[in-house]
Design a protein that fits this description.
Blueprint (H helix, E strand, L loop, with lengths): L1 H9 L2 H20 L8 H20 L1 H25 L6 E3 L4 E2 L2 E2 L2 H19 L15 H21 L2 H7 L3 E3 L11 H24 L8 H25 L4 E3 L5 E3 H14 L1 H13 L2 H6 L27
Antiparallel strand pairs: 1-4, 2-3, 5-6
């Protein structure tokens, strides 16, 4: 009974308002903060963490969300430290910030979690609610979803980094690529490493959802899925105002190669507009057309869960699927 009551509280309408406030704050900061000439991506990403905790508990339940959080932190920290020590899988680099967990700043793990959760849900939307179609009763396409969803979510993570890393490293010096690289001081191995690392923790979560038969709750309906889409879009938009406001300087990477700041900023903006923003736009279109309900699944009416009543059973808000 205590667990049921906790579930009811997590689905209270007040949490919906909190999620929309976090979404609106991310968009506002993404557009306004870069006007001072500084990148806003790191600040915006910090808002993803409380958003993902709240949204994830509402969608998957506390146990599943905590499993995703834990394995994301472990996998990302392991591969980051491995690469700092050996160069695999990202390349040879080191961080300049502190405090650190071994050799990685403590905020990096939560950023993987928050960004990863948003990418996971945007990818799921693009694949017609694939996260809710992973179990044995989800039909013949479930085996494809178990692999396709992690692959697409990881690609969306890597694409975001492609449009950001050169500013964070070559320009802002948040980390240093010790041997430089062809992507404005960043080696191509970094992006392959991002795809591999994030694919691994996404794949672990997909297998967990499939085998545990964890129900996916649809509280909030399409609005709940639009929120992570808007968050993901906000990351792409940060590069637009940054391009407009940032000073045009020359930056030298650790290998001694000089790069034009204007060229870096213009390229990063172009990449974001044609990848991150486009992914978000496609997901928004699918939600607006209600493709998820029409083509992939049948959803029960999605009302907010009220506080449990002693005489009435708690109404389920999990999705039901057609085979």
């Amino acid at each position: 009974m205590e667990t049921t009551a906790a579930a009811g509280r997590s689905h209270h309408p007040a949490w919906t308002a909190v999620l929309w406030l976090l979404t609106a704050a991310a968009i506002a900061l993404a557009l306004l903060l870069p006007l001072n000439g500084e990148s806003a991506a790191g600040t915006v990403l910090l808002l993803f963490v409380p958003f993902s905790l709240i949204h994830g508990i509402r969608r998957y339940g506390a146990k599943a969300l905590l499993i995703f959080l834990a394995e994301t932190l472990v996998v990302s920290n392991f591969f980051e430290n491995l690469s700092i020590s050996t160069g695999f899988p990202f390349g040879h680099y080191h961080y300049t910030g502190s405090p650190q967990l071994i050799d990685v700043p403590i905020q990096i793990g939560p950023i993987y979690f928050g960004l990863g959760y948003a990418c996971w849900l945007v990818a799921s939307t693009l694949l017609d609610a694939a996260d809710a179609r992973l179990g044995p009763r989800a039909g013949p396409g479930r085996k494809i979803n178990v692999v396709a969803l992690p692959m697409l979510a990881a690609a969306m993570m890597a694409v975001y980094d492609l449009g950001t890393d050169s500013i964070a490293s070559t320009v802002s010096k948040d980390w240093i690529w010790e041997r430089g690289g062809g992507v404005f001081g960043v080696p191509f191995t970094n992006y392959l490493g991002w795809w591999l690392t994030t694919y691994i923790f996404f794949q672990i979560f997909a297998l967990y959802l499939a085998r545990s038969k964890t129900p996916v709750h649809t509280v909030g309906g399409r609005g709940a899925l639009l929120q992570p889409v808007l968050l993901y879009a906000s990351l792409g938009l940060t590069s637009v105002t940054y391009f407009v406001a940032a000073a045009d300087k020359t930056y030298t990477d650790a290998s001694g190669v000089a790069w034009s700041g204007h060229a870096i900023n213009e390229t990063m903006m172009t990449i974001n507009l044609l990848s991150v923003v486009v992914f978000a736009l496609l997901a928004t279109v699918k939600l607006a057309r209600n493709d998820l309900a029409r083509h992939a699944w049948s959803v029960q009416p999605t009302q907010e869960i009220a506080q449990p009543d002693k005489d009435k059973p708690l109404r389920s808000t999990s999705a039901t699927f057609s085979a």
